[in-house]
Design a protein that fits this description.
- The protein is mostly beta strands.
- Helices cover about 0% and strands about 20% of the residues.
- The chain is globular and about 45 Å long.
- The mean pLDDT is about 95.
Length: about 170
């Protein structure tokens, strides 16, 4: 329980890794830390985690469930790219930014609730989330980036709060 940091690509391509229980005192996780852990099914982040590198779970094809720390202010770019089995994501209150390409091609994601603390959603953030039907945006959101929900062909339930100022080009284009 003394681990406070996990470095760049620390567990990359650990083909047998199925579950991650991160230590209670963990604060930072490096870029690509769990990239291509193809059997990884779930990950839960303790509230002590405040910084994560991009591409952390790229190509974790079996990843189904993620619970994020409330200490995370920004989801970095490409963090869940091609996590095709992802069906449950809990974003922590305190999150302010969903970076570019965060949930890029997370085909099985059916719904997402964006916390009230989120101000912006980056470009291509939910691109090609083929089963995405419901997006719950909270008061506080100000910007939806270009192509953020492009190719989300089943998206049927979304409402725009009064705080929303900008919807980028092709944000909801099929």
């Amino acid at each position: 329980d003394s681990i406070t940091s996990i470095g760049y690509s620390a567990f990359e391509s650990c083909k047998g890794l199925t579950e991650v229980t991160l230590p209670a005192k963990l604060q930072t996780i490096g870029h690509s830390a769990f990239k291509t852990c193809v059997k990884l099914v779930s990950a839960t982040f303790p509230d002590t985690v405040t910084k994560m590198g991009g591409s952390m779970f790229v190509d974790c094809f079996a990843l189904e469930k993620v619970k994020m720390s409330s200490g995370i202010k920004e989801l970095p770019s490409y963090i869940f790219q091609d996590c095709r089995a992802l069906t449950s994501v809990t974003l922590g209150e305190g999150l302010e930014t969903i970076g570019d390409h965060c949930f890029y091609r997370c085909y099985d994601l059916p719904e997402i609730t964006i916390p009230s603390t989120v101000k912006s959603i980056g470009e291509y953030a939910f691109y090609m989330c083929g089963k995405l039907q419901t997006v719950r945006l909270s008061e506080g959101i100000e910007e939806i980036g270009p192509r953020a929900f492009k190719e989300c062909k089943l998206l049927a339930d979304i409402s725009f709060p009064g705080t929303l100022k900008t919807i980028g080009e092709y944000a909801f284009d099929e």
